[in-house]
Amino acid sequence: MSGNGSHLRHQLDDLIHAPVRLSIMAALAAADKAEFRFLRDTIEVSDSLLSKHIITLEEAGYVEVEKVFVGKRPRTWLSLTDVGRRAFQDYVSVLKRLTEGSP
Amino acid sequence: MREHLTPEDALRHIGDVERRARRPARTTGLILLVMGVANIPYWLAMSLGPDWSKYAAMISWFIMTTFILVLGHRWSQQAQDREVTWINRPTGPVTATTLVMTAVMVVGTFLMPEHPGAGWITLIVALAVCTSLPMFYGAWRILRAER
């Protein structure tokens, strides 16, 4: 990668630039709102791993967690916050600039 | 997946996940498209066809509606898409226009003479196509949102 690329790389959001968290952010950016099990199956991770990364993203203010009951069944809905959506858009924009800048 | 992502890997991965996450919405868009297409022969059969075609159209409509309701309910429990939610609003323009066009179509069918002339047949065909337009619009809105 070029020197310019190395410089841009520092602008990548480390919180998003990790495989599972990137998957979560990409899925929520595309689906708007997703149920926990749908998200788990979509990105193919275990319940515990997904929960762990959701907590990290929630603490960063990127993901909103909403717990509801449908009858007696608990459901957890996940969505991106405005801050999270902006962060993901910025992240994708940096990625595109990085790939365009590659030789 | 590798722990250290290159920018190319990350972009490719985002594309893959987005395609999978949008599957329920994309399928809803395709169902709307199929409904719009199927709606035209349905109304033509109901208004201009012989008796056997009316029964066939009613049975097909019942099967299709049941399938769509079951599938729609299942997907609404998994993921929610902004465009799909907008289109499905009971008071939204797509639902309202569909209902109005259906009502116009029903009235047109009742007013039609027993042996319709070319003018009536043209009108019924035009109305059948117009009844499908809201579904085509809904399908277009969902499918164009593919990123």
Strand-residue proportion of chain A: 15-25%
CATH superfamily of chain A: Winged helix-like DNA-binding domain superfamily/Winged helix DNA-binding domain
Per CATH, the class of chain A reads Mainly Alpha
Number of helices of chain A: 5
Query: Oligomeric status of the shown chains?
Result: heterodimer
Descriptive tags:
heterodimer, A: 103 residues, alpha+beta, Arc Repressor Mutant, subunit A, three-stranded antiparallel β-sheet, 5 helices, disordered N terminus, B: 147 residues, mainly alpha, elongated, WH_DNA-bd_sf (chain A), WH-like_DNA-bd_sf (chain A), Transcriptional regulator (chain A)
Q: Any overview of this molecule?
A:
- The complex is a heterodimer of chains A (103) and B (147).
- Chain A has 103 residues and is of the alpha+beta class.
- Helices cover 59% and strands 18% of the residues of chain A.
- Chain A has 5 helices and 3 strands.
- Chain A has helices spanning 3-9, 19-31, 36-43, 47-59, 82-101, and strands at residues 33-35, 63-70, 73-80.
- A 3-stranded antiparallel β-sheet of chain A has the order 1-3-2.
- In chain A, strand 2 (63-70) and strand 3 form a beta hairpin.
- The relative contact order of chain A is 0.21.
- The radius of gyration of chain B is 20 Å and the shape is elongated.
- Chain B has one domain (7-144).
- In chain B, helix 2 (23-48) packs antiparallel against helix 3 (51-76).
- Classes of the chains: A alpha+beta (103), B mainly alpha (147).
- At the A-B interface, helix 2, strand 1, helix 3 and helix 5 of A face helix 1 and strand 1 of B.
- Chain A: InterPro entries: WH-like_DNA-bd_sf (IPR036388), WH_DNA-bd_dom (IPR027395), WH_DNA-bd_sf (IPR036390).
